[in-house]
Design goal:
Blueprint: H1 2-13, H2 19-70, H3 98-101, E1 106-107, E2 110-120, E3 132-141, E4 150-154, E5 160-162, H4 171-175, E6 178-179
Length: about 180
């Protein structure tokens, strides 16, 4: 009898967790989440900003290659740097990833922009559009969760940033910003 009585007592204590124990475990999980989530968001923003900088650098390099390859000045549009065909031309240069060169020109939470500046270059036979003598590349965050800084570059190849995340309206405005 004693063994049966002892087994019943053990079973009663092994029935499950008490409400207090469950609440303590939930509180610990919430504290860990409160610490981890902001760090995760900051690292995600840093990754998006790094991707935006690399995209600006890629477009800047591709623009110089475009200019030296086809003699049409700098590209007339961001789309002319892309292309999916096997034959490159001054209209579809196949120099950047089609994701970058296809509207709406977004990648990693940033909107990429390309503007020809300083007037049109002389017309080149076989090119659908005239290129430009200068250009401005921009990357603006789509939301505060994407990043906080905007980036820009021009034919000088220096990447500048604005901590407010606003668009640099001209080459002069871009060059007035801090550089990376």
């Amino acid at each position: 009898m004693r063994a049966e009585n002892h087994n019943r007592k053990l079973k009663r204590f092994q029935a499950g967790f008490s409400l207090i124990e469950l609440l303590i475990v939930i509180a610990i999980i919430l504290v860990i989440a409160a610490i981890a989530i902001p760090n995760f968001l900051r690292s995600r923003m840093a990754a998006n900003e790094a991707s935006a900088v690399e995209n600006v650098r890629t477009i800047t390099t591709a623009s110089v290659i475009y200019s030296s390859t086809w003699g049409n000045g700098y590209p007339p549009t961001l789309s002319s740097l892309g292309g999916t065909g096997t034959t490159a031309s001054c209209d579809f240069a196949n120099l950047v990833d089609p994701v970058i060169a296809t509207a709406p020109y977004t990648k990693s939470g940033y909107t990429l922009g390309y503007t020809g500046t300083e007037g049109l270059s002389p017309a080149v036979a076989g090119c659908g559009s005239q290129g430009y003598l200068g250009y401005l590349v921009t990357a603006i965050p789509q939301s505060s969760y994407s990043g906080t800084r905007s980036f820009c570059s021009d034919e000088a190849g220096v990447i500048h940033f604005d901590t407010t995340g606003t668009l640099a309206a001209s080459e002069a405005a871009c060059e007035a910003l801090s550089s990376l």
